[in-house]
Design brief:
The chain has about 290 residues and is mainly alpha-helical. It has helices at about 5-25, 35-65, 70-80, 85-100, 120-145, 150-170, 185-195, 200, 225-235, 255-270, and strands spanning about 105, 115, 215-220, 285. The chain has ten helices and four strands. The chain binds heme C.
C-alpha cells in the first residue's frame, strides 16, 4: 500500500480542475464564477469531496489492519512526514534506491536480460496529467469556442474592422479641393453608388430618373475636369433640379465616401464599354480637361 496524499492537496486540486473545466466551457469567461449556479456547484462539490475524504480515510485505516505490524508502522511513519518532502523523495530518490533491486525479465531464448525499471513517479504523474489535459482540451476544442484558432481569428478580424471604421470616422474628410480619382476606391464606390444613387441613375450609371452618367453629354458643367464635376454634383446637387440633391453639403454622405462614388462614376464614364440600353444623351457634349 502507498502512503496517503493529504486532503489539502487532493481537494484544492480537484476544485481547480472543476473550475478550469467551467472556465473552458463558459468560453473563457471569468465572471461566471459569481453566477449562483456555478457557485452552488462548486460548494456542493466541495462538500462531496470532504465526505469522500472522510470515507477514504476510513477505508484506508481499515485496510491498514490487514497489513503486517512492520508494514503498518512504516506506512504510519511515512504518512506523518511532510508531504512535499515525501513527493520529492518518491519522485527522484526512491526510484534510485529501487534501482538496486530491479526486476529482471529473462528472455531465455536470446539470452538478453531486460531490466524492468520502475518509471519515476514524477514522470508517470506528468503522463497522467497530459492525458487529463488532452481529454479536456479535445472536448473544449470540439464543442466550445475556447482557445479556438478560427474563433480567435474572427474576433481579431472584427476588432480590426471596428478599429478601421473608428479611424475612418476621425480621418479628415475629403473636400472638392483635396479629392482625387483613385483606382483603388472604385470597388467601394460601386457599393455606395448602388445604395445611394442607383435609384435614379441605375447601378451601372445608365440613367433612369437621373441622366446617363456613362456618356459624354452633361447638363451640368461646374468644374473643368470630369472627376471634380462628379464630386461637385454629388456634393452640391443640381442648381436647376432639386431632385439631384446636395448629398455632401447636407451631410448625408461624407467627403471620403463621395470621393469613392466619384471615382466609380469616373471609371464607368471613361470605360469604353457602355451599358447597351443607356438613357439617351441629355445636355451638351463636353470635352473634359485632364485630372490634376
Ligand atoms: C432622387 C434621384 C437622384 C438620386 C438619388 C441621385 N441623383 Fe444624380 N441626378 C438626378 C437628376 C434628376 C439629375 C439631373 C439634374 C439636372 O437636371 O440638373 C442628376 C444629375 C446628376 C449628375 C450630373 C449629370 C449631368 O448630366 O449633369 C451627377 C454627376 C449625378 N447626378 C450624380 C449622382 C450621384 C453620385 C448620386 C448619389 C450620391 C446621385 N446622383 C443621386 C437624380 C438623382
Amino acid at each position: 500500500m502507498r502512503p496517503r496524499v493529504p486532503d489539502f492537496i487532493t481537494i484544492p486540486f480537484i476544485i481547480i480542475v472543476i473550475t478550469f473545466v467551467f472556465y473552458v466551457f463558459s468560453g473563457g469567461n471569468v465572471s461566471y464564477i459569481w453566477h449562483p449556479v456555478s457557485l452552488s456547484v462548486l460548494i456542493i462539490s466541495l462538500i462531496l469531496l470532504l465526505i469522500l475524504e472522510v470515507l477514504n480515510k476510513f477505508i484506508y485505516n481499515q485496510k491498514l489492519k490487514f497489513l503486517s505490524q512492520k508494514e503498518r508502522s512504516k506506512l504510519v511513519e511515512q504518512n506523518r512526514k511532510n508531504y512535499f518532502v515525501r513527493l520529492y523523495r518518491s519522485g527522484f530518490l526512491d526510484a534510485k534506491e529501487e534501482e538496486k533491486d530491479v526486476a529482471v525479465i529473462d528472455h531465455g531464448f536470446d539470452e538478453i536480460l531486460e531490466l524492468d525499471n520502475r518509471l519515476p513517479s514524477w514522470w508517470v504523474n506528468l503522463f497522467y496529467l497530459t492525458i487529463m489535459f488532452a481529454v479536456i482540451y479535445f472536448l473544449a476544442y470540439t464543442f466550445t469556442d475556447f482557445a479556438h484558432p478560427e474563433k480567435e481569428y474572427e474576433l481579431d478580424y472584427d476588432k480590426q474592422l471596428a478599429e478601421i471604421q473608428a479611424y475612418e470616422k476621425t480621418r479628415p474628410q475629403m473636400t472638392l479641393e483635396t479629392a482625387r480619382f483613385d483606382e483603388n476606391l472604385v470597388e467601394e464606390g460601386k457599393v455606395i453608388f448602388k445604395e445611394s444613387c442607383a435609384t435614379c441613375h441605375e447601378a451601372d450609371g445608365r440613367g433612369n430618373i437621373g441622366p446617363n452618367l456613362t456618356d459624354g453629354y452633361w447638363i451640368n458643367k461646374q468644374e473643368k475636369s470630369l472627376f471634380k464635376n462628379v464630386f461637385h454634383m454629388a456634393w452640391y446637387g443640381s442648381e436647376n433640379n432639386p431632385t439631384m440633391r446636395a448629398f455632401g453639403a447636407s451631410g448625408e454622405i461624407k467627403g471620403n465616401d463621395i470621393q469613392k462614388i466619384a471615382s466609380y462614376v469616373y471609371s464607368i464614364n471613361r470605360n469604353p464599354k457602355k451599358p447597351s440600353d443607356g438613357k439617351a444623351p441629355e445636355g451638351e457634349k463636353v470635352t473634359w480637361e485632364e485630372e490634376q
